[in-house]
Amino acid sequence: MRARVLAAATAVTLLAAGTPVPAAAAPGITPATAPAVTAVCPRLPAPKVSRPPRPTPPATTPEQAAVGGEALAGAGLVTPSGSPAPPAVTATTWLVADLDTGAVLGACGAHVPGTPASTQKLLLAATMLGRLDPAQVAVATRADLDIEPGSSAVGLLVGGRYSVQTLWLGLLLQSGNDAANMLARLGAGSAQAGVAEMNEQARRLGAGQTHAVTPSGLDGPGQFTSAYDLALIARACFADAAFRRYALTERTQIPAQPALKKGGFQIQNENQLIYRYPGALGGKTGFTELARHSYVGAAQRGGRRLVVTLLGAEARPVRGWQQGAQLLDWGFRLPRDVSVGRLVEPGEREAEAAQPRPAAAAVPTRTVTPPWRGPAGTALHRIGDGDWRVIVPVAGLLALTVGGVAAVLAARRGRARRRGHRRA
Fold this sequence. Notes:
Helices cover 37% and strands 14% of the residues. The chain is an alpha+beta fold. It starts with a helix and ends with a helix.
């Protein structure tokens, strides 16, 4: 009886304030949407080759990876919907774009860093062509000829006198590293100053993943580019009439040096595209043991001018320029109005970076009203949180209640005993 009275009293004390209501669960976090599936780049089997360890490229930021369009951010194949499959190549990355409109028609790892080899000479051309008078005659120095033994050279002589035009032809036809050093020096005062100017030009063009260490493209620590950046650089080169003329020159004569008692000799253009591909506009080949084969080529057909860039290719079973030709054929088969991205314009990214970023709009603070629990529910919630400001009064109230109930029961027992004595 006493237990039932005590339980009832406790229940009355708590329920008089209201029935507790469970707290609402915290809102869940919506999981990020899974990225779209990227097609695997079609690869042509190539023989295994020994090569130096690949250097670790700098991290590509999300902003860099999305230059030219979000579709270009992945490492896989991106092509217009419904387009025919591009040819399988040994190149690790490539890109095909329209030289005039800047539309990117397709790519494989457009922003994946790669090693440029001699395709970096295009950045030298994009930087120095407008600075140097082609008729200027300069004397070659010993520092100009300080190149890696066995690497490609025109055959300049210390003390030899050469026109700037001859140097450009030696650079683009024969991939002369000696010519690259001399042109960088003539354009900026020294080869290293020329490299600094090349990197500045890369930034102006929007080629943020390109970092030159040598004027020629000979391997150096931290030297990288991407298929996308090479397309930006190539587009700047093909916009120059002198470059287009040099790139299509099949052969030229390196002049004799009577003062040094050396005769002249002929060099030929190493880019087979200009001999074997109808509508070829020229380009640039490249190779080092580290970079493997790199290639840039351009052609025109039906009023369109396309450029292809590729990095990390092997010469077997298909040579680099032939892989470029196959990708150009694929690009010319696509409709004119399709694209998967675009080549940014020179100065565009610098202008965007210079613009002040708009302040983030203030998000109005929403006061979330907790679910109503009633006084008892609130008290229980705070007791569960260990709030002694509630625990002590509630405990005191319960003690008083229990004490009061006990007093009532004792009084009732006393009355019952007295009545029992009178009956006896």
